[in-house]
Amino acid sequence: MLHNGFKGLDAGRLTVDTLHPIATGIRRRRVGLRTMLLSLWLVSAPVFATDSTAAPPAIVAQIDAGQFKAADAAIDTSLQRPNLSAEQRNALLFQRERMRRILIDFTLSADDVKGRVRKDIPDLSDAEFARWDAAGLFEHQVIDGRTLYFKRSPSNLFRISPEALARRAVQTPITGGPMETLNDYQRAIRRTSLSQHRTSVMPRRIRMTQILSVKADAVPDGQMVRAWIPYPRAIPGQQENIVYVASDPTQHDIASASAMQRTVYLEKPAQHGRETRFSVTYEVTLLAQYHDIDANKVTAESIKPQLAPFVAERAPHIVFTDAVRAFSHKIVGDEKNPYRIAQKLFAAVDRIPWAGAREYSTISDISDYALHAGHADCGQQTLLLMTLLRLNGIPTRWQSGMVFADDGKYSDIHDWAYLYFAPYGWVPMDVTTGRLQPAAGDDNSLEWFYLGGLDNDRIAFNDDFGRDFEPSKTFFRSDDVDSQRGEAEWRGGNIYFDQLSYDFEWSFPDRANHSATAQHASASRLDSSNHVYRTP
Description:
Blueprint: H1 33-44, H2 57-64, H3 68-79, H4 86-105, E1 106-108, H5 110-117, H6 126-134, E2 140-143, E3 146-150, H7 153-160, H8 162-166, H9 184-196, E4 200-214, E5 224-230, E6 239-248, E7 253-254, E8 263-269, E9 276-290, H10 322-332, H11 338-350, H12 366-372, H13 378-391, E10 396-404, E11 411-421, E12 425-429, E13 453-454, E14 458-462, E15 487-490, E16 493-495, E17 500-507, H14 522-525
Antiparallel strand pairs: 1-3, 2-3, 4-9, 4-17, 5-8, 5-15, 6-9, 7-8, 9-13, 10-11, 10-14, 11-12, 15-16
């Protein structure tokens, strides 16, 4: 999930250009949109930088330790320093905002958690709860002496604890995404790739509508709301022939094809008592990928300048900490072959239980969090695996967007990545979908389908994390890592996720009489946690 961001000024960000070829994309501008509306806004509005790496480490550590009052006092003191740069000031203000967001995610008391778990385990005892709590099965923080639990910790329990799952009074299945179980479509992708001697196969055309809605009266009546809805990147061999169809409002600004986190920018005034709804519809051709990798042919790559950024640390979320180094040594051992190293690390990260995520903007180092939390979602798993692979000299880069099912009954936001194997080049990996279980008669290589292969039941919006929008946001991003749900703001500030909902609707225009269309109720996605990729 990513996940990543907060780039009003983006001061001090690391600039990394993708090595993926960029096809010519669709870029349409309505004359006067920026000059008539945006210029007046930016002249008068404050501009916020959001690079958390510029914040004093001591303050970041205080917040991570739950010492919010002390951190708030330290921020006040720091803001009074003479000659404080705009970057430093804004980084301090973001740390104050980070505390506010943490308190939105951590809302439950121990009694609240017990009450919710007892809906599934009526005879849960206090002693049993205490034992599970001591084992770290209920994510919580001690904030200024108060123990507060993550709002999704009661439901996450059944994903990360087989013991708790077995205790449920009603044994409803814990389901995942439709691609997490080996199916005929994955088999067909591999079979077609091998028979056609192509790594990109089985093109399919999809029409997608993405919707972003701001809660009624979150913005005063008549005030202009600015919105950024994710939009697909043109990537040869993965997604091609992107065509804008429509938007609401009709005036729109599609970011350039080179934008690493691509969006459509829209503006609309708020109306009292009504949600402010934005949408964009487009068509895109999606291709599946499969690389038939022979481990014995994979060689350690001599890192040339164009690959160097992709084996480097990138604070705050890709850092080679002592804990990461120790974990890598334990898993990799003396293995030297890059593909087998990747297999070992992929399998190790895949074993981390998936659970619903707290907001990425609240986490100071996502890969370290994934290593220690006892659970992780897709973006957290992906960033941890990227960190481990880079530590071992294997180039990696981020990709994210959304996933869907043909039958119209499933969609979600999702994160995955690419890694570089010589002589094969860049190949995809999806550690959250993970290792598959071949059936009798299957080729055993299908177990590793998602280490070198990718289905085309997904759309990529982002080829990096924590990158600028076009145009940039004025206020802090709600997600400083990823861009999947959409973002919004008004003159008074950012509109955070507790005031937003998002939705996807899709169809297949090339299929005669095809009626599969997906709609997810906005209410179910209001204040939803990021990077879900599994049903609740």
